[in-house]
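Colleagues,

For the teaching module next term, I've prepared a clean inverse folding example: a structure given as tokens, and then the sequence designed for it. I'd like students to try predicting residues themselves before seeing the answer, so please don't circulate the second half yet.
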């Protein structure tokens, strides 16, 4: 049976979901979440991760680990994708911004849970490839843009939710400005050797509250000046 046989893929995807659930339970003391929402777990089960990695990585697509996607970038570990998505507490009507598209996997997960997803990727080749993969996988409602993600997407702001898949040393002001009152942002914050996955909440008065969730390691967010 081929590694890409639908039955083999289905079994591997289910094993990935089990690994995510086990990892969530293991990290519950840090995250405050003993389990991730059923909606998020179902979204993770539906998205065909093997379509969002290079061909040579497809046999490993459903391992609970990051994988290289070229240009010195990686696709995030499924548990981290699921946790970040869960922390956003997405609603179907949310307008959601992602920074750091890669090949489109996280955007596809977001697209399973809300109707309006906007994603920004700095590397033109990755942005073009992500747009193609998302379209061919049936996520035509996700809009992809090439640009400096630290500046957000001003023309489409404000956003109910923002997810950043690269680590700035500090939270970009433009992203805070583009987050709606009552909104949530999830991102890694810190330098190469010390990063914390951080939940940012903006209350209805526009005041910001931050909470460190879990130590993580992401590529640095490139910020133009």
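(Answer key — instructors only)
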């Amino acid at each position: 049976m081929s590694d890409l046989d639908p039955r083999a893929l289905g079994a591997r995807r289910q094993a990935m979901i089990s690994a995510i659930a086990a990892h969530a339970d293991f990290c519950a003391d840090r995250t405050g979440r003993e389990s991730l929402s059923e909606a998020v777990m179902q979204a993770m089960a539906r998205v065909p991760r093997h379509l969002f990695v290079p061909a040579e990585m497809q046999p490993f697509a459903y391992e609970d680990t990051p994988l290289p996607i070229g240009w010195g970038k990686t696709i995030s570990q499924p548990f981290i994708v699921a946790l970040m998505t869960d922390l956003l507490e997405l609603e179907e009507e949310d307008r959601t911004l992602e920074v750091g598209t890669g090949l489109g996997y996280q955007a596809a997960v977001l697209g399973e849970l809300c109707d309006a997803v906007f994603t920004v990727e700095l590397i033109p080749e990755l942005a073009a490839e992500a747009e193609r993969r998302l379209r061919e996988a049936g996520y035509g409602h996700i809009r992809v843009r090439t640009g400096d993600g630290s500046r957000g997407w001003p023309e489409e702001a404000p956003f109910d939710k923002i997810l950043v898949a690269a680590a700035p040393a500090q939270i970009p002001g433009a992203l805070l400005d583009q987050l709606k009152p009552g909104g949530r942002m999830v991102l890694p914050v810190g330098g190469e050797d010390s990063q914390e996955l951080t939940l940012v909440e903006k209350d209805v008065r526009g005041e910001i509250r931050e909470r460190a969730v879990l130590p993580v390691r992401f590529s640095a967010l490139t910020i133009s000046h």
